[in-house]
């Protein structure tokens, strides 16, 4: 195995471990040693790759977002546009253990962004990437003729806002909100704007 590959593998293990530890105990409580132990590396090696907790946190958030996006890129160019959009909607909600972990990371990001300007700017940038992700899927559907033309930016902002609102209530285990009801409500707004059936498309 080359040095470059080993380095990439080490960074991957560290970032995966950081996501897990931050989601479990919160950013304010983590110590670099905890992440090093979870990743199976020395503290010195961890500091070689990430010299501060803040850098580790931002890299972990980026890593989490990138992994979610990669998972959804499968056959995105050939699958029906409505199906691609529903996959994105599901990924924006805490629909399983991995996405629940992502949501805990986002909650840590929101809390930290309220107190730290650098984190605030980073959070705004991540939202811009999410917005572009949703908007890209909508634009592809419009371009292919599968969607009725609409204000893409307005719809993307609405989808993200609804996802945040319902996602928080799902994370709080609010008994009045279920995953199905959240997806249905968000899809109702998106499908109406795009001229699609109100029923959620299935794989």
Automatic annotation (TrEMBL):
GO terms for molecular function: DNA-binding transcription factor activity; transcription cis-regulatory region binding. Keywords: DNA-binding, Repressor, Transcription, Transcription regulation. Residues 8-68 form the HTH tetR-type domain. PROSITE patterns: HTH_TETR_2 (PS50977). It comes from Streptomyces cellostaticus. Residues 31-50 bind DNA. The keyword Transcription applies. This is TetR family transcriptional regulator. InterPro entries: BetI_C, Homeodomain-like_sf, HTH-type_TetR-like_transc_reg, HTH_TetR, Tet_transcr_reg_TetR-rel_C_sf. It holds the Pfam family TetR_C_6. It comes from the Bacteria.
């Amino acid at each position: 195995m080359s040095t470059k590959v080993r380095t990439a593998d080490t960074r991957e293990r560290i970032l995966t471990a950081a996501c897990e530890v931050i989601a479990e105990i919160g950013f304010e409580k983590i110590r670099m040693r905890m992440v090093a132990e979870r990743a199976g590396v020395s503290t010195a090696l961890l500091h070689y790759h990430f010299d501060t907790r803040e850098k580790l946190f931002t890299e972990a958030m980026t890593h989490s977002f990138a992994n979610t996006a990669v998972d959804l890129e499968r056959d995105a160019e050939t699958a029906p546009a409505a199906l691609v959009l529903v996959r994105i909607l599901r990924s924006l909600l805490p629909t399983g253990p991995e996405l629940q972990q992502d949501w805990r990371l986002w909650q840590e990001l929101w809390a930290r962004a309220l107190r730290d300007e650098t984190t605030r700017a980073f959070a705004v940038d991540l939202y811009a990437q999410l917005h572009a992700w949703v908007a890209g899927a909508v634009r592809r559907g419009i371009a292919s003729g599968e969607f009725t033309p609409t204000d893409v930016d307005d719809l993307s902002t609405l989808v993200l806002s609804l996802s945040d609102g319902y996602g928080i209530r799902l994370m709080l285990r609010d008994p009045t909100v279920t995953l199905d009801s959240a997806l249905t409500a968000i899809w109702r707004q998106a499908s109406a704007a795009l001229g699609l059936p109100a029923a959620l498309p299935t794989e």
